[in-house]
Design a protein that fits this description.
Length: 238
């Protein structure tokens, strides 16, 4: 087994685990022991999955043809399976870490400015920008669209981390946004990259790549509204 195949096997195991665990914290009662336990393990699985994806991407950038037999377009392999996968791996790790951290640091917001969280958000922004530039270079609009997520999420996470006094429920919105975002990233990668072998004609279809994002945004919006409704003062009884 090559190093790339080892990374791939580990990526599939941790990613599949995360895809199943994703729905447990989403559907369970928020703040309960069940939610906290499975939410924590979901975040850990996302950190592992993103790390293995990044390792696969670096292997592809170094040896694209050797690790992707049957695909002769060297530029496309490096762009999609190398630079874009590297960005998606970093995106997954950065979002999972931020989502886990803001919940843990709710009583001490300054800890969100720890060097590792800041470095991950900067890395997410940088790899997103690199993905967009390389996508433009080969005329691949899919890479530009995917990069937009990191170009928005990275600066927004940094703005939150360096905010002087966030509201009492702001960490909940950040937690939901980043944790669900990590799930979206892995669902997108598993769905889209899996289609390369199962249905190659759909592999670069923008609608296929966008489907997890639409579903994830709906989940984020729903929980954000619930959090905001809970923060509003009760109306006086007439």
């Amino acid at each position: 087994m090559s190093l790339f195949q080892l990374f791939l096997a580990c990526h599939i195991i941790t990613g599949a685990t995360g895809l199943v665990l994703f729905w447990t914290p989403v559907l369970s009662r928020k703040g309960g022991a069940f939610h906290r336990l499975y939410g924590k393990w979901f975040s850990y699985s996302m950190l592992a999955t993103g790390s293995f994806a990044s390792s696969m991407a670096i292997s592809t950038i170094i040896a694209p043809i050797e690790n992707h037999h049957g695909i002769e377009d060297l530029a496309l392999v490096r762009a999609i399976f190398g630079w874009m996968m590297l960005y998606l791996g970093v995106l997954t790790v950065a979002l999972a870490w931020h989502g886990l951290g803001v919940a843990r640091n709710r009583a001490d917001h300054a800890r969100n400015r720890a060097w590792l969280n800041v470095a991950l958000q900067i890395a997410m922004t940088a790899t997103a920008l690199n993905c967009a530039i390389r996508g433009a270079a080969i005329g691949q609009p899919l890479m530009l669209g995917m990069a937009s997520v990191g170009l928005i999420a990275g600066p927004m996470n940094l703005i939150y981390a360096f905010r002087a006094r966030p509201g009492p429920r702001d960490y909940l919105i950040e937690h939901v946004k980043s944790s669900v975002g990590a799930g979206i990233s892995v669902y997108t990668a598993f769905l889209a990259f899996g289609l390369v072998r199962a249905a190659p004609q759909l592999a670069l279809n923008p609608l296929v790549w966008a489907l997890p994002t639409f579903i994830g945004l709906g989940i984020i919006y729903y929980h954000r509204e619930r959090i905001l409704r809970g923060a509003r003062p009760a109306q006086a009884v007439r």
